[in-house]
Amino acid sequence: MFLQTSGGGHCPPFFFAQWQCFGTIVVIAYLSSRLATFNNNLMTIVTSAEIENFRSELADYPDALAALDVIEDCEGDLEDAAMVLAIRVGQQPEIANAEWLPIVSKKCRAVICQEEFRDELVNGKFARMMGHLAATKLCPSPLVTPILMYVAQQGVENFCEPLDPVS
Q1: What CA–CA distance (Å, rounded) separates 4 from 61?
Q2: Distance separating alpha carbons of residues 26 and 3, to the nearest angstrom
Q3: pLDDT at site 94
Q4: Please, are residues 147 and 68 in contact by the beta-carbon 8 Å criterion?
Q5: Residue ranges of the chain with per-residue pLDDT less than 50
Q6: In degrees rounded to 5, what are phi and psi of residue 23?
Q7: CA 92 to CA 120: how far, in whole Å?
Q8: Is 143:67 a contact under the CB 8 Å cutoff?
């Protein structure tokens, strides 16, 4: 793959040290597009339909409904919503949004991946796990919803695979 420069020449991407090959605008535009692609790969975005499915599934949990409102306000970005919720409950995450939610979710993995809940989670039933995980106090109740949505996005089987026995 080669990039066309403003001068009409072609240069291989990632050879940014060769400034004579790129015009400044081309370099900035290319880097901006690559950074946007990279950032989009780090974000976990849920759709409004997914939010509504969780809203109906978790209707008996006021903290879940409040968390879903935050997720909606964050345009479905689970990482951003989880950071907002964490700050609201007094936590002060010191790492990037895209890294924090997966780390918190992994801390809850042993509970989430218990065999007695696995079939329900695989089938999109999160209400019982919502109550169970909130009761464990592994994380504040408002964070359980983005964690469960993150698990759903990753795929329950993929998320739980590290705990599965080796056959």
Answers
A1: 55
A2: 9
A3: 79
A4: no
A5: 1-7, 9-41
A6: -80, 150
A7: 32
A8: yes
Cβ count near 74 (within 10 Å): 20
- Bridge partners (DSSP) of residue 10 are 4
**CB-CB contact of 64 with 144 (8 Å):** yes
pLDDT of the residue at 93:
84
Token pair belonging to 165: 């026995």
DSSP codes of every residue in 104-167:
HHHHTHHHHT-HHHHHHHHTT--HHHHHHHHHHTSS-HHHHHHHHHHHHHH-HHHHHGGGSPP-
Residue 11: beta bridge partners?
3
Q: Which helix (H) or strand (E) holds 100?
A: helix 97-107
pLDDT at 99: 85
Cα–Cα distances in Å, from 40 out to 28, 33, 81?
Answer: 18, 11, 15
pLDDT of residue 41: 46
Helix (H, G, I), strand (E, B) or coil at 60: coil
The helix or strand, by DSSP H or E, that contains position 4, with its residue range, turns out to be: strand 3-4
- 3-state secondary structure (DSSP) of residue 15: coil
- Six-digit token string for 95: 């790492």
Closest CA to 44 of 148, 150, 152, 144: 150
